[in-house]
Structure formats: structure tokens, C-alpha cells
From TrEMBL:
Residues 7-221, 276-414 form the Peptidase S9A N-terminal domain. Pfam families: Peptidase_S9 (PF00326), Peptidase_S9_N (PF02897). This is prolyl oligopeptidase. Residues 479-691 form the Peptidase S9 prolyl oligopeptidase catalytic domain. Its EC number is 3.4.21.26. The keyword Protease applies. SUPFAM superfamilies: alpha/beta-Hydrolases (SSF53474), Peptidase/esterase 'gauge' domain (SSF50993). InterPro entries: AB_hydrolase_fold, Pept_S9A_N, Peptidase_S9_cat, Peptidase_S9A, Prolyl_oligopep/macrocyclase. GO terms for cellular component: cytosol. It catalyses: Hydrolysis of Pro-|-Xaa >> Ala-|-Xaa in oligopeptides. It comes from Nonomuraea jiangxiensis. Gene3D superfamilies: alpha/beta hydrolase, Prolyl oligopeptidase, N-terminal domain. Keywords: Hydrolase, Protease, Serine protease.
Length: 694
């Protein structure tokens, strides 16, 4: 690779600041302005990375195999039901991006909307969609080049015609149609910034610029909001009530608008209050301290999943007309399983649990009674579920590490395979997945899923890739990735560390790696790596790590604490300079999770996870691959860029530090098929080359 151009050297301009008696030195603060010099440097880094990756000996063959495997399976996801129609996002094997489809009552399916037809630079994708109650219209959020900065396209579900468009600044799926199916409420940011966002009421055919503000700071004295809060309005498909969900921190993306909540305040009001938003009689039901993480409604009852006084959560019920949480009825008490979320289906409440990383479902009559287990078709994960707004019916998409997703229908009694999701032609019969438990430094057993070919020899010489996330209570659910067979065929091991800070065991697992306890997330990751080595799966010269977004915290943390442990490290759109995170667009909403430099405790918590400030000159760091997308709305390119510049200047190993740039990409959501496959080929080839040379 001697003919590959050298990466440009970043200018050093040290900024020193003292906060709470602690002095910080930042040599590349100038990158944060993202001016002409930064983009010129980034362009040079992108060219160098592309030349290096394209020249890797394994890349071409890996990409060919990944395309073969990825082109074999049609993917179904983003399910919704309305009237006699079933909607889904579908990616055919030869399609760049998923399209929106509709299946009629007679079983006939058709493409309703193809985002590839939207004009403009780059590519467009559907971020989320919501059908109207009568199934005649669909509101689709569409963004360009993975930016997640969505415009709302209203599609006629009969003809597929575009009825109207609401300009960008929508990023969450908190859109609720009203009963007339000609009006909806939705959330949007104002003037392209994240503060003082609002919820609006829109009537089809009206000018979006004239939409009525229905939730906003200072609008209604009953709803308390700070500039950072996001006020979402939810109009359930049944009953006479509506909810206001005020988010004080980060939220998971669609389709989880009624679950995976955190740091939220919940209000209830009659729907008639929409006629006068200023005077709407909102009533507070639960505050952030009540730990509400999911909700569902029947005609007259609000069901809440809460972790207050229940580390693994329980289900409470209150009347919508008198929602006094202190007098709530316990529908499902706390137990060994972590309660994730609930849905109302007819006269029953479906309860989704997490049992040591495996999804379970219970159902209980709304009139009361003991929850009963619903037999599951496999020990895997419920990737998503959706309920019919009127009929006692639900659809569940279930998958495992080695089992392709299958779509099941719940009819109030049992699960039946619909046959709508095709079986995978990719044979995983020779691939084995098992869950181990790695002993943490404090003795806590950390679940560790290990996947590999059944004939793998535990000789300590296998290439292995360890990944983990460990933030926001996120759960590492089993995921079927047919393209990974290209890794297993080469004797590769893939391991998923279910770290503290995540949600494997509910809120208590999240809190064990939250804020000042974040060191546990990083040390858990290191302990899982050492457990793989101790069991003979791999050795330091053949072990790599991978992480994305907040998964950059355990990976970069392990990189700077134990550089000798890794042959390679791949970090995608990672958070690595945490002490500067709250100055980004999405930074303020992450303060409850990670901390703030405005307090000494917050600063010390952020210093735990700021790998950029922990890089030292003259250390032999492993090979490192960092990625970014120029349209990333969550982690700006300067975050991984600063770490790349610092590592390139500091490392004494002679191993590469690459900065891979996706010109028409964002945080990962909305990537095309070709982008996903090229990234995986780059990562696997990079790791194999680094471990082959060890």
C-alpha cells in the first residue's frame, strides 16, 4: 500500500480551559466550526481512507459475498394496520431503499410510495409513516441523504397520489390522525434548531404555515416546558382523551412513540381541548421521577409502564377521567422479567417482557386477572409490533440471531404465522448462537452473546469482533443479519456485550451504567473481551471491537484504557468527545443521560467517557477506523474527526487511523443498500487485515 496518498495533518491550536478546578486541553477545538479548513482536511482524510480500504486484500471478495447474501432476502418492517389494510416498509433484494406498500383485504399488495421518485440530490428515504384511521391517507416522513430532517408527504392510499407536503424540520413520529382522517397533530422544530419545538394541528388542504400551535412553551399554563423540552401530542385511536408527552431528554427513534420513553412528563386532557389549546385543561399524571417508559390506552383507562419502586418495571392503570397515580391499580406487578411495553388488543392487555435478553409476551384481561404467558414461536426478539385501532388484532415481527424475521398475527388467544414475511434462502444451519456470562470486575455477570460457525475450534486464534452499546437503556435485541455469514464462513466470531447502561435487565441495568457510573459500561466491555480470550475464542492480536453512536463510548473507552487488547477498532458516527457534546444540536437532550459541564459532578461524569481527552502521545494504538456522514443530525462529523486527528498525531504503532466519510449519509438511518453493504465490507476487510498482520 506504499502508493496510497498520506492523510493530511491537522493543524494544532490548543484551547485550554479550567472548569471546576479541572484544566482541559483541546488541540482541535477549531474543527467544531466546520469551516473551509475543516472540510478541506476532511476531504483529504476521506480520499486517504477510500484508497486504503479499496486496496485491502479481502475487500473485493467480501463485498461480492455480502452482496450475494444481502440480495437474497426481502425485508419487511415498519408495520401498521388501518381499516382493512396492512401497511409495511419493504426492501426488495434489488432495491436501493425501502418502499411503502399496502396489502388489501383480498391479499393483493402494491407499492404505495417509492421515495426514490422524490427529486433532489443524493437519495431519499421514508423515516416513518402513520396511516389515517380509515386507511385512506398516509403521512410519510421523508428525508434526504440520511439527514432525518423530514418533510411530511401526505399520500392518497387509494391512488398513491401525493396530496400535499409539509416542509422539513420534523424528526419524530409523534403524529396522530384525528377521527375525521382529514386532520392530524404533529411535532416539528422551528427554524432548524432544537429549542422551543412545538406541536401543531394540520388540516388537509390547508397552508402548513398557518397550522395551529397546540403545544408549546408558554402556550398553556397547565403544561410546564423549558426551551429544551419536546412537547408531543398523542391522540389515541379510541376514546375521548388525548395525551401530552413532554420529553426532557433523548428518545428512541420511530416506531417506538409509545415505548422506550425516558425522562418524560405525562398529561391528560379531553380531546375537545384542541378547540382552544391556550385553555385546554391539561392534567399532570406522572413526572420524570415516576419513571414512565411506555403507555397504552383503552376507551377509559391509561396503562403505564413505570420503574418507580420497581427496578424492572411494573404496569399501572389509572382512569383517564381521574388519573391519580397515587391510587393506581397494579395490573402487572414487578418480577424477575423486565417489563418493556404494553398494548391494548380488544379486551386484553398485551405485555412485552425481556427475559435475560429474550422477548416474552403475557396477556391479561382488561377487566382484571393474572397475566398468562403467550407461547412464543422462538427464543428471539420482537423487533416490532403493531395493533389494529378497532379490531382485536396485533402483528408481531419476531426474529433471532440465526432466524430470519417472521410475521405473526395475534387474535386475542394465540400467535399464527401470517406467511407474509418470506423465509430466508440464506442457510444459517451451520451457525451457532449462545449466551455466555462474563464476570465483571465487581463480580456482576454480564450477558455476552457469541455467534460463530458450529465447527469453530477454540484455539485462541480466531478473528473476533466484539460490539456493544450500553446507553439510554437501549436493548441489544437478537438481529438476523444474513450478510454476516461472510464473516462466519471465514472463521470469524461475532460477540455482543449486553453492557450496563443498556436495558437488558430493565431500569436497574440502565442506572448501573448511567452518568457517574459510566465507567462500568467501559469496564464491562473490556471484561467481555478478556472473557472471549480466556475461553479460547480469540487473542489480542486477532480481537477487534465495533460500536456505533453511543456505542462509541465503550469502544473508544476501551481503546484508550487498554490499547494492547485490540488488533483493530471500528467506530461508526461515534460520541467520543463527550465534554463538548452538549454544544451540538442534539447535545442538550443527552444531558440527563451523560451529564453537563455546568456542574462538577456532571463534568467528572463526562470525563469518564471522553476518549478524545484521554489519548496520549507515544502510545502504540491499534488500527482504528472512524466513520461519519456529512448529513448526521445526531453526532456531527467533528466528533470522530477530532479523535482521528488526535490518534494520527499520537500513535506510535505505525498502524493506520482512518477517517471514512459518507458524503450522502447521516447517522445510519436512511442509508441505501449499497451504502450498508460497502460499509460492512470495509469494516470486515479492515479488521481481517489488521488481525492477519498481528
Amino acid at each position: 500500500m506504499s502508493d496510497i496518498t498520506e492523510p493530511p495533518i491537522a493543524r494544532v491550536d490548543v484551547v485550554r480551559e479550567t472548569l471546576h478546578g479541572i484544566t482541559l486541553e483541546d488541540p482541535y477545538r477549531w474543527m467544531e466550526t466546520e469551516g473551509e479548513e475543516f472540510h478541506h482536511w476532511l476531504d483529504g482524510q476521506a480520499r486517504h481512507a477510500r484508497e486504503y480500504l479499496d486496496a485491502l486484500p479481502h475487500r473485493s471478495r467480501l463485498l461480492t459475498r455480502i452482496r450475494e447474501l444481502g440480495g437474497a432476502l426481502t425485508r419487511y418492517f415498519g408495520l401498521a394496520m388501518a381499516a382493512d389494510r396492512v401497511f409495511a416498509l419493504v426492501r426488495e433484494p434489488d432495491a436501493r431503499v425501502p418502499v411503502l406498500t399496502v396489502t388489501e383485504a383480498d391479499g393483493a399488495s402494491r407499492v404505495l410510495f417509492d421515495p426514490g421518485t422524490v427529486p433532489g440530490d443524493g437519495h431519499h428515504t421514508i423515516d416513518w409513516y402513520v396511516p389515517s384511521p380509515d386507511g385512506r391517507h398516509v403521512a410519510c416522513a421523508v428525508s434526504a441523504s440520511g439527514s432525518e430532517d423530514s418533510s411530511i408527504h401526505v399520500i392518497d392510499a387509494d391512488s398513491g397520489a401525493l396530496r400535499e407536503t409539509i416542509p422539513p424540520t420534523t424528526r419524530f413520529a409523534f403524529l396522530s390522525w384525528l377521527e375525521d382522517s382529514r386532520s392530524f397533530v404533529y411535532h416539528r422544530y422551528v427554524e432548524q434548531h432544537r429549542l422551543d419545538s412545538r406541536s401543531f394541528l394540520h388540516h388537509l388542504g390547508a397552508d402548513p404555515a398557518q397550522d395551529t400551535v397546540v403545544l408549546a412553551r408558554g402556550l398553556n399554563p397547565h403544561v410546564e416546558l423549558t426551551p429544551r423540552d419536546r412537547p408531543f401530542l398523542v391522540v389515541p385511536p379510541r376514546g375521548e382523551w388525548m395525551l401530552a408527552i413532554v420529553s426532557h431528554g433523548a428518545l428512541s427513534p420511530w416506531p417506538w412513540t409509545s415505548e422506550q420513553l425516558s425522562d418524560c412528563t405525562v398529561y391528560v386532557a379531553p380531546r375537545t381541548g384542541l378547540a382552544d389549546p391556550d385553555a385546554c385543561p391539561w392534567r399532570k399524571v406522572a413526572g420524570a421521577a415516576d419513571g414512565v417508559t411506555a403507555f397504552a390506552t383503552s376507551h377509559d383507562t391509561l396503562y403505564l409502564v413505570s420503574h418507580r419502586d420497581a427496578p424492572r418495571s411494573r404496569v399501572l392503570a389509572v382512569p383517564l377521567a381521574a388519573p391519580d397515580l397515587s391510587r393506581a391499580r397494579v395490573v402487572v406487578p414487578a418480577g424477575e422479567r423486565a417489563v418493556e411495553t404494553v398494548r391494548v388488543v380488544g379486551d386484553r392487555l398485551l405485555v412485552r417482557d425481556l427475559d435475560g435478553g429474550v422477548s416474552r409476551v403475557r396477556h391479561v384481561p382488561l377487566s382484571g386477572g393474572e397475566p398468562a404467558d403467550l407461547p412464543m414461536p422462538m427464543d428471539g426478539a420482537i423487533l416490532e409490533w403493531t395493533t389494529h385501532p378497532e379490531r382485536p388484532e396485533a402483528l408481531l415481527l419476531v426474529a433471532g440471531w440465526t432466524d430470519a424475521p417472521r410475521l405473526y398475527r395475534y387474535d386475542g388467544q394465540s400467535l399464527q404465522d401470517t406467511g407474509l414475511a418470506p423465509r430466508s434462502p440464506v442457510d444459517f444451519g451451520a451457525v451457532h448462537a449462545r449466551t455466555l456470562y462474563a464476570p465483571a470486575q465487581d463480580g456482576t455477570p454480564i450477558p455476552l452473546t457469541v455467534i460463530h460457525h458450529k465447527d469453530l475450534e477454540l484455539n485462541g486464534d480466531n478473528p473476533a469482533m466484539l460490539t456493544g452499546y450500553g446507553s439510554h437503556g437501549f436493548i441489544d435485541l437478537p438481529e438476523f443479519r444474513p450478510e454476516m455469514l461472510a464473516w462466519y464462513e471465514r472463521g470469524g466470531v461475532y460477540a455482543v456485550a449486553h453492557l450496563r447502561g443498556g436495558g437488558t435487565y430493565g431500569r436497574e441495568w440502565h442506572e448501573a451504567g448511567l452518568g457517574p457510573r459510566k465507567e462500568a459500561t467501559i469496564t464491562d466491555f473490556i471484561d467481555c473481551a478478556e472473557h472471549l480470550i480466556a475461553l479460547g475464542y480469540t487473542r489480542p492480536g486477532r480481537l477487534a471491537a465495533e460500536g456505533a453512536s453511543s456505542g462509541g463510548i465503550p469502544t473508544s473507552g476501551a481503546l484508550v484504557r487498554r490499547p494492547e487488547l485490540w488488533a483493530a477498532m471500528a467506530m461508526h458516527v461515534p460520541t467520543v468527545n463527550a465534554t463538548r457534546n452538549e454544544f451540538t444540536e442534539s447535545g442538550p437532550i443527552n444531558v440527563p443521560e451523560f451529564g453537563s459541564i455546568t456542574t462538577e459532578e456532571g463534568l467528572r461524569a463526562l470525563l469518564i467517557i471522553d476518549a478524545y481527552l484521554r489519548v496520549h502521545d507515544g502510545v502504540p494504538y491499534p488500527a482504528v477506523l472512524l466513520t461519519t456522514g456529512l448529513h448526521d443530525a445526531r453526532v456531527p462529523p467533528w466528533q470522530p474527526a477530532k479523535l482521528a486527528a488526535r490518534l494520527q498525531a499520537a500513535t506510535a504503532s505505525g498502524r493506520p487511523v482512518l477517517m471514512r466519510v459518507e458524503e450522502h449519509g447521516g447517522h445510519g438511518a436512511g442509508s441505501t443498500r449499497d451504502q450498508e453493504q460497502a460499509l460492512l465490507a470495509d469494516v470486515l476487510a479492515f479488521i481481517l487485515h489488521a488481525s492477519d498482520g498481528s
